[in-house]
Amino acid sequence: MAASHDTETDKLITDIMKLLFHLEYRTVFGEELTLNITDGDAGTVAAHGMSTTDGMHWTCEITADARPGTYMDYFYAVCREGCMVRKEWPVERHRVEFAGAEVTRYTMYDNWTDTPDDAYMYSAAFTDCVEARKRDTSADTEFAATLRIKVRAPQLRQGERLAVTGNDAAMGGWRPEEAIMMKEHGVHEWVAVIDAAALGRQETEFKFVTIDDRDGSTAWETGSNRRIAIPTVKEGETVVLELPQARFDRAPWRAAGTVIPIFSLRSEGSFGVGDFGDLRLMTDWADMTGQRVIQVLPINDTGMTHTWTDSYPYNSISIYALHPQYTDFRRLPALKDEARRKHFERLRRELNALPQIDYERVNRAKTEYLRELFAQEGATVMMSAEFKTFFDANREWLVPYAAFCHYRDMYGTATFGEWPDHKTLTDDERERMGNRGTTEYKEVAFWYFVQFNLDTQMREVHEYARSKRVILKGDIPIGISRDGVEAWVEPRYFNMDGQAGAPPDAFSANGQNWGFPTYNWDEMTADGCRWWVRRFTKMAQYFDAYRIDHVLGFFRIWEIPSHSVHGLLGQFAPSLGMTRGEIEAYGLPFNEKHFTEPFISDRAIEQSFGDKAPEVKAKYLEHCHGDMWRMRPEYDTQRKVEAAFKGMTAPADTQLRDGLYALISDVLFVRDHNDNDKFHPRIGVQGDFVYETLCDEDRHAFNRLYNDYFYRRNNSFWHDEAMKKLPLLIQATRMLVCAEDLGMVPACVPGVMNELRILSLEIQSMPKTEGLRFGDLSQNPYRSVCTFSTHDMPTLRQWWDEDEQRAREYFNTVLHKAGDAPHPLPGWLAEDIVDRQLASPSMLCLLSLQDWLATDEKLRLPDKDAERINIPANPRHYWRYRMHLTIEQLMEADGFNSKTKSMIIESGR
Description:
The chain is of the alpha/beta class. The protein is built from 26 helices and 38 strands. The chain is about 30% helix and about 20% strand. The longest helix has 29 residues, at about 440-465.
């Protein structure tokens, strides 16, 4: 209940203290309030009912064993019939400090705390990084009667302290130099300790004032003087007044930063791929240029096949384990074998000189090196206290991960369903692999060693970035691999028959099929989303901010049946499917067979395949009646067609294959995955043959149904679904929460993100306002991340040159420049575009390194097309982009760095 910050208070002192709590909160009939005492991460340890006579003024008196130098955290909640229906903002609790040896009673006057608009200021990005300050509990007081004033002041910057002064002489008489200095005893919460007997007034006026330790300057609280009636404070009593937030007129904090995958970093000493040491160097460059954020892509282990296909960072085999390729060998002991040391140094230089990452060679070499280092150092490292601490803290996920890697390599595949044995991890096997005295432990110990080094290095980089006041921002993928540890040991949390993806968009006309299993949210929410909470908690050990990949997936995910390759036959899950009666209520007569089975007519075949139509009919189709056909059973799903064309890469073969895919997806409705009597309109069907068969009246009816279904029908349902999950996740840590909210965005999404204070993603070339070609940067919400391109998009230079008409329109209407747009994009024009991004009101402006470099024609990569990180339309894209210059060279580019820093400063960031 009470936590101590002073070892001297560990002496056996028992003080039974009376604590009286007051709270004003308007309830309605049937509601009750509870006072909930908390114990750090353990959560609520005691709940006490409160009393009221008018439904507005609530009190509660308890006794507690409260030793001087300790404190108690608590929160208030609303209950109905014994169930908690609402509670205060959980990030910051109320706190009462027990700081008086002679005190026998504490009386608290509190305010109900809802999520504040500036909740982001309480995130670790601010409290532990850019505005980090030392916090401490108040010193013991010797006053016979004590008044404590508490107030939150998140606007204070690093180096500033809070004080209070007023018209009473005991409060400094309006003289800042005589003001009562306050202590920050909680995050952004400051407390003043006042001798109540010295106060000469029953009512006092006062204000808060900041004092800057760097130059002694002061700033007064804005607005009218505060006025409070001084409560009667008896001898031996401490009265605590919790006041509304301090008012200081400060410009909203805004920052700039760089987005770059760690694998794309290049330094003089890296090993053919970026590593955690390079991230440390990149932090120095960010700090040098006035940037406060570095955003990276997911850093988890993706090692499934040991081929280049593992380069996809959003398909990891573990949500906890870090990728071995990020190990910085410079921070590990050198190999003692001189010949092997020289061998690896020659290989390192060769791989590091390549223009792009050779994923397979790099990872083979780094794994070989790690195995030799393990043979040399493993026994010593794993006997260390540091390793034992790491192992005990991470055992729950570390043992299954090591076992998975062991069996993956033993059986030659990560597809555990194909393993001849060990298709599940038994409790007995898990226990033996975690016991250092067993053979099983020795078989997997290498992976413990690897993860210990990675964890140590990434934590060190995190602390180093904090020391430089640079926020490290991570990325949490929406999906998990169906061939990964979590699917192996926790299958109850996933729908293995489903495939997660995205409906058609500007990136892909057929939608995207990521292949991930979808989540069994019923199972996840049943235990309070423990799986997600563990995941986010681990992430917080390395980052102070994060991006939720595809936040729409927490409202609903695009679920594609396992027999499909493309995303067109998907449906939102969960969603409210339509019954036959609901469909017909729109005026559309429902013909189940005609609407749900592929519409394959002579005309469709001839238009799709041309002179190959007879061959297609003979080999892949069978005749039904008239001019109608159906797929032969051996080709009646896209997966069967995919298997039939495996290894056939000639353009004619892929064109034929894709044509067959299109035939199979030509349906007007998709049957619900869970209820055969419900249906969903097929996404984007208006361009297909089955839609053309509808008469004008039926088309009109279908279009009304289609628009209602996709844009209105599920909004309330999806809002409720998101609110079951997202609050638990974002409140699990203190990380700053940002989200990728692009795509087919339901109307309920902005409201939920605003309610939870999640930063949105704003991309000028993908405006969220219907009818706009380009977004108006001045209208970006403050709680947002502004950027011009993401890793899934063309870089600024590519975007500019891929569509000259679009570039001219942007040149004329956004940049307000006359004539034709110059091509290729000149550096001065790129600088203008970047300047405008920086000037937006968005809290964060995070640009890819490629877009920063676009402003310097001498420094940027000559081949703009080599800058692309990912092409979403290509499911087999090779993620191998790497900086063309080293970080050391970047840091020596004085002209570019000076210009970049000036742009950031001039933008007010």
